[in-house]
From TrEMBL:
It is found in: Membrane. It comes from Fictibacillus fluitans. The keyword Electron transport does not apply. PROSITE patterns: PROKAR_LIPOPROTEIN (PS51257). Gene3D superfamilies: DD-peptidase/beta-lactamase superfamily (3.40.710.10), NTF2-like, domain 1 (3.10.450.100), Penicillin-binding protein 2a (Domain 2) (3.90.1310.10), Penicillin-binding protein 2a, domain 3 (3.30.1390.30). Residues 1-23 form the signal peptide. Pfam families: MecA_N, PBP_dimer, Transpeptidase. This is Penicillin-binding transpeptidase domain-containing protein. Keywords: Membrane, Signal. Residues 155-319 form the Penicillin-binding protein dimerisation domain. Transmembrane segments: none annotated.
Amino acid sequence: MKQKLGILLIALLLMVIAGCSDSPNPEPRIKEYMKNWQSMNFDKMYGMLSDSSKKSISKDDFVKKYSAIYGGINAQNLSIKPVIPKEEPEPDKNGNITYTYNVKMDTVAGPVNYKHKIKMKEQEKNDKKNWYMNWDYSQIFPGMDKGDKVRVQTNKAKRGEILDRNGNGLAVNGMAYQVGIVPQDLPENKDASKKELAKVLGIDKKTIDNALNASWVQPGFFVPVKTVAEDDPRLKKAEKIKGVSTQSIETRVYPYKEAASHLTGFVQPIKADELKKLQSQGYESTDVIGRRGLEKFYEKQLRGTNGGVIRIVDSAESEKRKVAEKEAVDGKSVTLNIDMYLQSDLYKQMKKDVGTASAINPKTGEVLALVNSPGFDPNDFVLGISSSKYQSLEKDPKQPMLNRFAYTYAPGSTFKPITASIGLETNKLDPNKEVQISGKKWQKKGWDKKFVTRVATVPSVNLEKALMYSDNIYFAQTALAIGKDDMVKGAEKFGFNEDIPFELDFENSSLTKDDINSEGMLADTGYGQGRVEMNILHLGLSYTPFINNGNLIAPKLEKEDKPEQKVWKKNVISPETASRIRSDLVKVVEDKRGTGYKPPLKNIALAGKTGTAELKSKIGEKGKENGYFVAFNQKDPSLLISMMIEGVQEKGGSHYVVPKVKNTFKSYMKEKPLR
């Protein structure tokens, strides 16, 4: 009992002694200061400086100094930790105590780590004692003195390039030219030169005046007005104007312009709101970022990592110390399976039309082309597209900014081989049975206003003839025999209602039970109308089971050293079904009665299917028509093309599309040995 009482008295005595002492503990104070520093709360840091330190620098200068330096070096992941000794440091003869602290941060020049010391002094303010920091310039970086500056040099990483399978550049690092004015070189009649330049560049004279009136402009300075492509014909005209000069700059260049615009996308300078989100990833205000297409998808791979150097220099700009240095790491280039000869040829065939096309190697799944028509020039967006030009693109009824190959459309009769496959696999279709059909219209008993129409009035058709003549009635009746449930299940085996295993985002091809809400809708589905929709790439892929013994091939965008077949879905159909459909598709193109026969090709034996999808809002009206043709070389199945062109109702329907696809086959097969 006495022992416990003694311990209690000692504890009370210690508390009394502590209570009598008015000297605060420095440890919480140094921790608070370091916490404010780590949070970059420079205002609060300044409030914790000693009186003598505040005499050496004002609060405004203190805050600006830290903000400018940390902003300039892009300080991220800042860690400031004091080293707390086991025993409280003893004051020196001036009453200062010293703490060691560790600093870690990521910067444009790589990681910065250092250990430094700071002195603290006890002061009384407002009748209360506390510890305050004896600050000097070495607290920013060790070795830094008053009058010194921190200099930052950024070494830009080169953006990786996007190349086709043959090494042709789709998106490359090239040169452009800034057209500008050196004010002191303008002739006496300045306005005449400015007006002439405005006319050549297609801009307002006011734009030139605003550039020349900027606060930084000096008589001998080059003042950029507009950036133009290296091959822009306006460049030579501008250089002939008095007072106008040009200078080259590095820029992103898209050599194939409209032909690959929706595939490549483009880069643009990073925006302020984006920079706030991405600064931690090393982005800087002078960087560009991928906006659309492959430039956006491969952004992380293409952009690389900037390097830099952080130096401390004296008032004479002589280097005193190198704080950090990091080499730039260039971005990695991407080599695609895309063949720009083929891509360009398809775009040439479609240039005057609105539509989309894809080309694949149906054996390997290599995606050889993804085309959208019309396109736009990505270089305009990199160099700075004018408001008027952008508005003209937005208001163009052909919608050149719409990426059609990423969206779905009713496939029309190109869906019939899928219907036939489902019918054969479910044993609901006898391919050899001659079905008697009278006239161009058919209506199932019990239907009210619903009719199915066809083009050819063949009195009886089997599967081969139905595909060859593209008989809507035959396939409507086949779909009704299959039934809604099996129709949807069969379509899903072909990849409907799910994502394509592909790098780029595509709208999913769709056919659901909810889509088929009536017998009439099921009948329409059988010949590719109703609510069945497919994107152009999936349409081409859906024909690969007919070539690969029933296996649906997965698409591949990036080139491989040894391309191997990757199967998306195995055994979609049996080899027997695949062989049957393939031989019938040969008839569609090679038989004179087939819808895909004209114009016949010499030395290239194609198989395929035509299609026309009619888009109308109500029964009985004449709607807009989209024309299709899907074809592959049956003897050398290394190329399969799917093409859709909008608004063919006055152009012969799908017969308008067939020659375009065949022309590309002719060109490609002629040039193929050169690859």
